[in-house]
Amino acid sequence: QGQALGELLFALASAFCKMGLLSRGGILEAEGTVEIKFRRKDLLKTIRRIDGTYARIAQQLDSQELSKEARKELEKQLKAREDHLLPIFHQVAVQFADLHDTPGRMQEKGVITDILQWKNSRTFFYWRLRRLLLEEVAKREILNAHSELSNSHIQSMLRRWFLETEGAVKGYLWDNNQVVVEWLEKHLQEEDGTKSAIRENIKYLKRDYALKHIRNLVQENPEVAMDCIIHMTQHITQAQRAQIAHLLATMDNPASS
User: Fold this and answer.
1) Vertex 74, ends 71 and 78: CA angle to 5°?
2) How far apart, in whole angstroms, are the C-alpha atoms of residue 104 and residue 7?
3) What is the radius of gyration, based on Cα positions, of the chain?
4) CB 70 within 8 A of CB 76
5) Which residues of 19-33 are buried (b: 16+ CB within 10 A; e: fewer)?
6) Of 159-163, 236-240, 245-249, where does the model show the most confidence?
7) Whole-model pTM?
8) Helix %, strand %, coil % for the chain, to 5?
9) Is the dihedral angle over the CA atoms 139, 141, 144, 145 positive or is it negative?
């Protein structure tokens, strides 16, 4: 039980990842990113492209007809403009890099599924944990019926059963933890007379799994096929035997059917 609870808590933290509005992913260190990806030479190119004063002075310095005194004065003005603008442009670059680590950007890239407001976090995790616990109950019952199914296959089956009972129009509610909890509770009940989509489908899974094993056994051991038929006919009703006899006769003479 302790291991199962640990797995559930890990799934709660990672499989359905959300972030607060002011959170950071911690993937990027904005200052370091700028030092590597947007160095001084890149900042100066940006300043020259954006700032008209800097661009004008730089253009004047490109002239070959400047006197030594004029060039020295322009270089002084350019240096002063750089000293004034570089800290500003550096901060803009850092802010731009930091935006890639914000919840909005991470959601857009598919790293997280949604942005969670702190005031709603307790309610969200309450329903999320209840959903995970109920899904584990359903998964255990499904695996007892068909042990070869993967976790992703089981998850897709649960979603399909939800759509079959609630309708495709309400398919978006699969992402609503409270709605799914209520649906799971309803269809996992043991009460007699209650129609459960989960338990009905589990019966079909168990039947298909048993048939699969019987087919595999007969194919791998054809010499015991007749013994299997004799054994099975001893455990069915007279009406079922008659139905099997009719089916076999039809298979032998399909034209007469």
Assistant:
1) 135
2) 28
3) 35
4) no
5) beeebebeebebeeb
6) 159-163
7) 0.58
8) 75, 0, 20
9) negative
